Amino acid sequence: MRVPGRGRAREDPGMTDTAAHDERMAGDDRRGGIRARRLAAHRGARRVFARFGFHRTLRERLALLDGAADVYDLDELSDVYGDGVVEALETKVAGLLGTEAAAFFPTGTMAQQVALRCWAGRTGDRTVALHALSHPEVHERNALSEVGGLRTVRVTSEPRLPTAAEVRDFEEPFGALMLELPLRDAGYVLPSWEELTEVVEAARERDAVVHFDGARLWESTTALGHSLDEIAGLADSVYVSFYKSLEAFGGAAVAGPAELVEEAKAWRHRYGGQVFQQFPTALSALVGLERELPRLPEYVAHARVVAAALREGFAAAGVPWARVHPEVPHTHDFQVWLPYEADVLAEAAVRAAEETGDVLFGYAWESSGPGLACTDVHVRSAGLEWTAEDVRTAVADFVARLPGEVSG
Q: Ranges of Basic and acidic residues compositional bias (predicted)?
C-alpha cells in the first residue's frame, strides 16, 4: 500500500500526454464514462474550487485576450520566430526572477531538456541527479535520456525534497542537481527555506550546478517566505510554466545567465521550438502574469482554509481514517486520501456534483493500494466563494453517499 505523498499517475490539467493518462482514460470509459460525467458536472456546477482552461469552450478561452491591450501594445507588429511580444515576455520573466535573461519555449518538457543539455556541455558531465518522483522521471517518457542523451540518477524516492545529506553523500558523481519546486507527485510539497539553501550548498560542494524545475514556482513564495527573485537566485537556472497557475494558453521559459539562455535558444531551434508565430500564447502569459500572479498568495491562503475544513468534515462525518496532505498545504494544490476503492469515491463524487451543483472533488480518484485512493484538490479564484462551512456541508453530503463499511 502506498502512503500519502507517494507518486502515482494522476489526471492533472496540462499533463495529459502520457501513457498513464491514456490508460486512465480508458479505465474511466470502462467504468461507464465517469470522466465525461465528471467534466459535465464540473462545467455546469454552481460552485467549484477551480475552473481551468480545459473546462472552457474555445470562445471562452479566446476571451482571455480581451484585456491584452493592458499588457502589450497591440498596434505593434506581430512576432516572427520569437521577436516582438515573445521577447517582451522573456524580458518580463527575467525581471521577475532576477536573472540575466530568459528564453520562451512552447513546452516545459522541451525547456528542461534543453537547459539540462546545455549544462551538461558546460560541466562535461551528462548525469543529472533528481528525485524519483520528479516530472522528467514520471511524466516525460524518459525524454532526458532518449532525446537529450542525459543520464539520470535518483537521489531519493521519499515523498519530500532531497535533503542536504542525501545530496552530499550520494554515491555517484553528477553534473547537475534538478529540484522540482514544489514536488508535485509527492503532494505539491516544498522544503523550508533553510532546507532548500542547505541542499543547494551541498550540490555546490560537489561542483554541481543547480536547476530548479519551477513549473509551479510562482505559488511557492508563501511557504518559502521569500520573493521569486530570491528563490530563483539560489539556482543556476530555472524553468517556469505559464499555464499551470497563470492560466495562459501554454508555454514555458528557461531563465538564467545570458550565455546559457543564448545557447538554449539555439537548441530550441534544433528541437523544433522556433515556432513562426506565438503571439496568442505569449499575450496570454503576459495577461496571466498581470492578473493571476498577484492573486496566488490569496489562493494559497484559502487552500489552507479548505484543507482544514475537509479534515474537520471527515472527522465529523465519522470517516475512520482520512488524510489531507500536506496537512497545511504548501501551495494552492494538495492531496486528499480516503480508505475506499477509487471507483466508489469517483461515483460518489460525481453523483454529489450532479445532484447538488457543488463539486467537492473534481478530479480523478486513483487507487493507491487495496481500499485506499487519492485525489488532488486545486484552489483558484472560483474556490474563494467557498466558506469553511460550505466545505464541511459538502463533505457531509459526500460521505453520506459512501458505503457504510470501509476497507481496512
A: 8-31
